[in-house]
Amino acid sequence: MGITLARRGEQGQASMESVEKIRTVANDAETTTSDRSQFDRRMKPTVMIVEDEEALLTLLQYNLDKEGYKVLAAADGEEADLMIRETTPDLILLDWMLPGLSGIELCRRLRGRAETRNVPIIMITARGEETDRIRGLDIGADDYVTKPFSMTELLARIRAVMRRIRPALTEDLVTFGDIVLDRAAHRVRRGDREVRLGPTEYRLLDHLIQYPGRVFSREQLLDAVWGSDVYVEARTVDVHVGRLRKALSIKGEKDPIRTVRSAGYSLDEQFHS
């Protein structure tokens, strides 16, 4: 009888352990799904709309969000300028005729600053004269769309610009040297081996691989990888860069990450020892 009770107790304990294992697996799966959804949300390209017509602004926001872009919106030039100083978008849809600071003047300002000099700008305006289009393009606009316009055509133009400025962003399989990042499978390979990365290291690599050779400060990496709404110590970046380095070079391969003193990190196009 005592043996039977003992065995039942052991079985009960085993059952509890099984339940805990199931809960752990479920929690891990939920965490992975959450991490991936956060990655998708943070890494998708950001489009800023600067438009004072509320109905058009709402329409643009709806369609861009549906296309998978992260959308920022401003109703006038000064507001847009302040927002862009805080968060640099990947592309700007800019209305020419804005209250206060005009779109053409904002475009001139942005082209005059190093951090926004190369951000693509598509002008949206009712001014369809050839002289106006030439002026907009000469000021620094990359494209020019006249109102009223086809939403399908505008989205196609945005995709074309994105492919030109960030080709790695539109591909599922991205290669850098002997490193291959597969977004569809959420995997990384280097040479003939699989590289095991945590969610943060994966997001970090995905961001760096979009801009080979470009140096990012700790603050820029925090915004891009962790998000601007999350408080994380800047030194945390060093820890995750170290982990990424270790994972990428665990077999003695050359280190692809370059540290620039007092500036930040980049994926170096010339791997160094």
Number of strands: 11
Rg, nearest Å: 24 Å
Beta-strand content estimate: 15-25%
- Biggest sheet strand order reads 2-1-3-4-5
- Assign an overall shape: elongated
Description of the molecule:
The strands form three sheets. Strands 2-1-3-4-5 form a five-stranded parallel beta sheet, with helices on both faces. Strands 6-7-8-9 form a four-stranded antiparallel beta sheet, with helices on one face. The radius of gyration is 24 Å and the shape is elongated. It has helices at residues 2-43, 54-66, 77-86, 103-111, 130-139, 151-165, 199-209, 218-226, 235-248, and strands spanning 46-50, 70-74, 91-95, 121-125, 143-146, 173-176, 179-182, 187-190, 193-195, 255-260, 264-272. The model is unreliable at 2-42 (pLDDT under 50). The chain has nine helices and eleven strands. The longest helix has 42 residues, at 2-43. Strand 6 (173-176) and strand 7 form a beta hairpin.
